[in-house]
Amino acid sequence: MISDITLGQFFPGYSTLHKLDPRTKLILSVAFIVAVFFANSPVSFLGLLIGVLVLVKLSRISFSVVFKGIKPIIIILIFTALINVFLTDGAGEPLVDFWIIEIYTEGIVRAVFMALRVIILIIGTSILLTYTTSPIALTDGIESLLSPLKKIGVPVHTFAMMMSIALRFIPTLVEETEKIMNAQKSRGADFTSGGLIKRARALIPILIPLFVSSFKRAEELATAMECRCYRGDKNRTKLVKLEYKSRDYIWFCAVALFVTAIILLATLPYSIGYSGRLLEIIFYKI
Amino acid sequence: MNEYIIKTEGLGFTYSDGESDSLVREEIPALSDINLSVKRGEYLAVLGHNGSGKSTLAKLLNLILVPTVGKIYIDGVDVTAEDFDEDGVFDVRRKVGMVFQNPDNQLVATVVEEDVAFGPENLGLPREEIRRRVNSSLSMVGMQDYMRHAPHKLSGGQKQRVAIAGIIAMRPEVIIFDESTAMLDPMGRAEVISIMERLNREEGITVINITHYMEEAARAERVVVINDGRLTLDGIPREVFSEVELLHKIGLEAPQGTELVHRLRLAGINIEGSSLTEQECAEALINYLSGNRK
Amino acid sequence: MNEILRLEEVSFIYSKGTPFEKVALNKVSLSFEKGKITGLIGHTGSGKSTLVNLLNGLYKPTEGRVYLDGVDIWENPKEISKVRYRVGLVMQYPEYQLFDESVREDIAFAPKNLGLTEGETAERVAEAAHFAGLSEELLEKSPFELSGGQKRRAAIAGIMAMRPEVLVLDEPAAGLDPRGRREILGGLRQYAEAVGASVILVSHSMEDMAHYCDNVIVMNRGEVYLSGEVGEIFSRSEELSRVSLDVPAISRIARELAKSGFELSGELYTVDGVYDAIIKYLGEDKR
Fold first, then answer.
1. Radius of gyration of chain C (CA)
2. Phi and psi dihedrals of B72, rounded to 5?
3. Size of interface B-C (CB pairs under 8 A)
C-alpha cells in the first residue's frame, strides 16, 4: 500500500536527535552531504556507514522503518548501478568479457560506491531532518537560517509556511490517492495493463478528482487559517523559540570531527588506488 | 459590555456575477433579511438543510464573506461600517472562533501541540502564555495525552477535538461550529457535542451550533431554522419542534417521538403535553393510554 | 437459505509482520441473503469497513475464503476485476471519484470498462440515473456543478450502472440532511427489486437500519456480534447497549410504554410501526 511509504514522514519522539535545534540539524545535514560526496574509498564509506548507523540508533527509530524509507528508490538504484557496471571503462583487463559486455573492476567499484552514496545520503538526511524534526520545526529552522534574506525582500516566511503545509498534507494526499484508486478500481478501471499511453490515460480518473479535492482542501484550509487570525508573519510569535543549547554545540564538534575524518580518509593520496587494488585482490582470489 | 455579542440587521448576501462558477468553489447559498441577536453566553442551534444558507451565515459572522446588505454588530461594534479596517477584522476573528466540518482541512501543523499553538502565535502572545494556553486547551478537550502526536493518525473525533482546542486557545467569546459533527461517527459526534456544551456551561462561551441534525438542535437553549436563505423559525426547541408540518415542508424532521405524537394527533387522538424528549413523549402517551383505558 | 455472498473464517490483518500489525477481522463467518437489504453496523474500528473492501476483492483475506454465488472469488486472482463488476462497491464520500466532463459520461465509465456497446451503455446510464433519482437535465451538467447530495447520487449511479448483483454502500448518507438521506436510501429497495440484486448497507444510524433493511449484522472488534432480522436485532437492546449501540429512539419509547403495562405488538422500531401498533391497540381497547 502507498501509505506504507515512510520517506519524508515525521516520527514524533523524545530522542537526542529529536531534541536538537532544527538549525543545528540543517547545518549538520549540509556537512554530512559534503562528507558523503567526498567519500571515495572503502574506509571512508565504512566510516559513513557507521556514522549513519549511530544516527539511526540515536534517533530510536526502528531499522525496519528506515529501510522501508529507501524501498521506493531501490529500483532506480539498481538500474543506475547496472549502468555504471556496464558502461564504465577500466584501465586493466576486464573481469568479464562476453559478447559486447565488458565489466571492469572500476565499474563495480563505482556502482557500489554510487549506491552506497545514495543510500547513506537518504538515510542520513531523513534521520537528521524529516524523521526526527517536525515539519514546523524544520521550516522554523529554515526560516531562521534564511532570515537575513528578508532584508533584501525575499518572502522567507511565506515560503517556509508553504513548505510546512505541503509536508503536513503529504500523508493526507497519499491516503486520498489510495481511496480514489480503490474507488475507480471498483468501477473497473485498470492501471496495470496496456502500453504507456493507455496507462497514462488511466491516470486521468485519479488525477482529476485528486486535483479537485486538493483545491477544495486548499481553499478550506486558507479559510480556517484566516479564521485563526493568520496574517503572515506580522506580529507573529512562536511556541518554540529556537535556541542553541550545549547539546547543539557538542553535536557541532562531534560532526565537525566526523566530517573532517571522512574527508581526510577520502583525500589521502593512496585511497583511490587502494580501493581499486583491494577489489582486484578479492577478485583474483576468487 | 454589550448584552448581545452578535446582532445582525437586515443582513443579506448574494453573488455578484461571475463569482460563483469556479470549478472547486461550491455554490454559496444566498441569504436575505436576517435579523438575529445572540446573547452573551447563549447556546444557539442554527438548523437547516444542506444548501439552506446556514453556513453562509457563519462565514458572514466571521467576515470571511462580506455582506451585500445589512449590518453586523459584534460586541456592539459595527463591523460592516465603511471605515472598519484590517485590525478590526483581526479582532473579530479573535472573538468569534470557527470550527469547520472537515477536521483534516483545518489542522495546519504536523504535531498536535503546534497546531493548537497556531492561533495564539498569530495573536503575537508571549511564549510562556502560548504554552499555558496550549496545555489548558488540550486538557479542556481531553487531548492532553496526544500533545506530541501527528494529527493525521488520530480519529475523526479526536482531530475535531484538536481543532476545537486550537480555537479555545485564542480565548474567543463565541465559537461557531459549522457542521462540525457532520463527518464524524456517533462516538465522535457525542464527544464534540459534550465539549460544546461544557464550554458553554463552564467557560461561559457563547456557542452557535450550525447543524442539520435535529437531535443536536433539540439540546440547545434556542433554535433558529433557516430555509432558502431566510430565517423561518426562532424559538426554544419545544416551540420550534412543535411545528412538525413546517419542518417537513422544508426537508427537516422532528425527533421520532414528536413525529409519532404529531401523527397520532392528526388521526384525531388527542394526546396532551409536550413530546420533545423521549421521556416526555412516553409520559404523554402513557397518560393518554391510561385515561383511555378507564 | 438462498445466499449470494458467504464468508468463511475470514481474517484480515493490516501490515502483517510489521510493528504496526493490526487484526481488523478475526475469523468472521457470515452470509448475505439474495434479494435482501442487509445492514452492517458497528463502531469505527469494528472491522466493518475492512469487511466491505473484502467483499469485492479490493483486499484479499489474510486467511479464509469469500464465496460469491458459491465460487471462491480468489480462486483465480487474475479474474478479480470481474468480481468487482458483480459486487459493486460505493465507498464513503463517493463524490470524490467523479472526474468526467458530464455526469452522463461519468456514469458511463464503468459500463465502458465492462466492454459494453454504446447502446447498452446508454441504456445502463439511463437505468442507473433513474434509480439514483437524477434528472435528464442533470446528466448533461458537469459533475462539479452539482450540489453535494446530487454529486453523491451521481457517484452511486456510477456503480449501479454496472448492474451489480450485490450493491455494497459504505455510509452512503453520511453528512446529508434528512431529505438527502431519504433520496439516496429510498432508491436502494427500488434497485434491489428491479435488478434482483442484494444490497449491503453500512451505516451508523439505527434509525436508517430500522427503516431500510431486512437483516442486520452488528460488528464489534473484528467479530460478528449479532446477526438476524431487523425486528429480532432491535428486540435485543441490552446486548446492543453492551457494545455502546442503541436502538432507535422510537423503540425506547415503545419500551417505556411496555414497562407501564401497554404491550404493543408489531414493528416497534419505526415511527410507522409504533403508530400502527398504537392505533391497533386503541381499536382493540375500544372493542
1. 20
2. -125, 130
3. 95
Residues of C whose CB is below 8 A from B50: 147-149, 176-177, 180
- Would you say C128 and C108 are in contact if contact means Cβ atoms under 8 Å apart? no
Other Cβ atoms less than 10 A from the Cβ of A97: the count is 11
Q: Which chain C residues are closer than 8 Å to A190 by Cβ?
A: 81, 113
pLDDT tens by residue, B95-145: 999 999 999 999 998 889 999 999 999 999 999 999 999 999 999 999 999
Q: Which CATH number fits domain B4-238: 3.40.50.300, 3.40.50.150, 3.40.50.11270, 3.90.1030.10?
A: 3.40.50.300
pLDDT, tens digit (0-9, with 9 covering 90-100), for C18-36:
667 889 999 999 999 999 9
CA quadruple B142, B145, B148, B150: dihedral sign: negative
Domain ranges of chain C: 3-231, 248-287
Contact C85 A208 (CB under 8 A): no
Q: Which helix (H) or strand (E) segment is B134 a member of?
A: helix B127-140
Domain boundaries, chain B: 4-238, 255-294
CB-based burial of residue A249 (10 Å sphere; 0-12 exposed, 13-18 middle, 19+ buried)?
exposed
Interface test with A, best of C82, C113, C162 (most A CBs within 10 A): C113
Give the Cα separation of C188 and C36 in Å (integer).
11
Q: What ipTM does the predicted assembly reach? A: 0.89
| DSSP calls for A50-93 | HHHHHHHHHHT--HHHHHHHHGGGHHHHHHHHHHHHHH---SS-
Q: Grid coordinates in use for B43? A: 447556546
Q: Which three cell numbers stand for residue C116?
A: 459494453
Q: Which fold has domain C3-231?
A: Rossmann fold (3.40.50)
Residue with cell 445466499: C3
Q: How far apart are CA C246 and CA C229, in angstroms?
A: 16
pLDDT digits (tens, 9 = 90+) for A127-147: 888 888 877 788 888 888 998
Residue C104: DSSP 8-state = H
